[in-house]
Write a structure and sequence with these properties.
The protein is built from twelve helices and 18 strands. The chain is α+β, with helices and mostly antiparallel strands and 427 residues long. Helix 3 packs antiparallel against helix 4 and helix 7 crosses helix 12.
Length: 427
């Protein structure tokens, strides 16, 4: 959510920032709407003030025996009481219209975010790891997985497309990856483990910028709840409406949860395999910090996600997203893209974003600095540490053997109870 005062004072700056996002100028329309709202608010306040003033004067006039004046004042108060509800309703509608208009405008990009139209304009920041050399033609996970317990057919049978049924050691490897991620983030990076709800109210989705713009991308129950598209929603909204003590910051939260996405805007993308599912697990990272700490926290969060890939010895690259590929609520985003030898391509496995005060304004989340009376908006950040299903895909493709087996990464040995390889089942 944007600060209308900033837009009033800096219309050219705001429009220039939105132009980087590919939007036409919007400041003039927002300012005009705000001026109309403020004029109505002023009329309402004046009417309220005059009503109170006249009501008080009635008693004084009666006390002085000036009946004629008292009756005139009573008539004025009665008229104000009749006109004020219409003003109150107009004021409410205009305030709602302004908020709705602001709610669908994306965040302002940070100065160091590259301009661009789409993923082709993203900038590679760094790369890590050596791509494995194979003595055979590496296969895609969708070709290797079924014999190892990645059952696409059963998932489709019971739930439809983009659902998968994992069995045996494949299910165990998936669980091991999630637990490994959660343990590393809590023990080495100081994130507090949380087990949040996966069903949330409108307010939580709105506060974390998933509503109203992306309603079709999420699943909605018939009794008013949303299935979270990521536990960023639950974790970030845990401080919704709060005024936090300065001593509580920085706050770092993590959770390993089921996530649900309708993928309404991705028709035809990654329909084969385990890359893009309606239901998946993710180890989420959320930070709530002071404004002056958010840039450094963004780097720290990204490093925490990178550490998982490094521990699993999975080659990856770090990419700074351009303005045209960055998420709606982000002011700056790093994507981590893991190398998939079967596909011969890098694929996103983590996205770490700094949203600045954008979400905090929507959630009305502030903090009070020690010794100060005024409050400031916090900054919020979110990232994947990592997407478990995509990590499973990366392990399968990078650790595949010529006989169709998959070696278990050394980092997961204690989580796999002695299982060092996944072997294909006999036909």
């Amino acid at each position: 959510m944007h600060d209308i005062r900033f837009i009033r004072e800096n219309p050219e700056v705001f429009d220039a920032a939105m132009a980087r996002r590919g939007l036409k100028p919007v400041a003039a329309g927002l300012i005009a709407l705000d001026e109309t709202r403020r004029a109505v608010t002023t009329r309402l306040q004046e009417a309220q003030g005059r009503r109170n003033e006249a009501s008080k004067a009635i008693g004084q006039a009666m006390g002085q025996g000036d009946t004629e004046k008292a009756e005139a004042l009573k008539a004025e108060v009665a008229e104000l009481k009749q006109t004020m509800p219409a003003l109150e309703e107009e004021d409410r509608k205009l305030a709602e219209e302004l908020e709705d208009s602001l709610a669908v405008i994306p965040n302002i990009p940070a100065d160091d975010v590259p301009d661009g139209a789409d993923e082709n304009d993203n900038v590679e920041v760094s790369a890590w790891g050596e791509k494995r050399e194979f003595d055979f033609e590496p296969k895609e996970h969708a070709d290797i997985g079924p014999a190892l317990g990645m059952d696409f057919e059963t998932g489709t049978k019971i739930s439809g497309a983009r659902f998968t049924f994992l069995r045996g050691d494949m299910a165990r490897l998936h669980r091991a990856l999630g637990q490994f991620m959660l343990d590393r983030q809590t023990r080495e990076y100081g994130y507090t483990e949380c087990n949040p709800p996966v069903l949330v109210k409108d307010e939580a989705m709105y506060g974390t910028d998933k509503l109203p713009k992306f309603a079709e991308d999420s699943f909605h129950t018939d009794n008013g709840y949303w299935l979270i598209p990521t536990s960023e929603v639950s974790l970030t909204a845990s401080v919704m409406g709060d005024i936090l003590d300065d001593s509580a910051l920085p706050m770092r939260l993590t959770g390993l949860t089921q996530c649900f996405r309708s993928e309404a805007g991705s028709a035809g993308k990654d329909t084969r395999g385990f890359i893009r599912q309606h239901q998946f697990e993710k180890c989420e990272l959320v930070s709530i910090v002071r404004p002056e700490e958010s840039e450094a926290e963004h780097e720290r969060m990204t490093e925490a996600a990178e550490a998982i890939l490094q521990a699993l010895d999975l080659p990856y690259r770090k990419v700074l997203l351009c303005t045209g590929d960055m998420g709606f609520g982000a002011r700056k985003t790093y994507d981590l893209e893991v190398w998939l030898p079967g596909q011969g391509a890098y694929r996103e496995i983590s996205s770490c974003s700094n949203t600045g005060e954008f979400q905090a304004r929507r959630m009305k989340t502030r903090f009070k600095r020690e010794g100060e009376k005024k409050t400031d908006f916090v900054h919020t950040l979110n990232g994947s540490g990592l997407a478990v299903g995509r990590a499973l895909v990366a392990v399968i493709e990078n650790y595949q053997q010529e006989d169709g087996s998959v070696r278990v990464p050394d980092a997961l040995s204690t989580y796999m109870g002695g299982v060092t390889k996944l072997f294909p089942r006999s036909p």
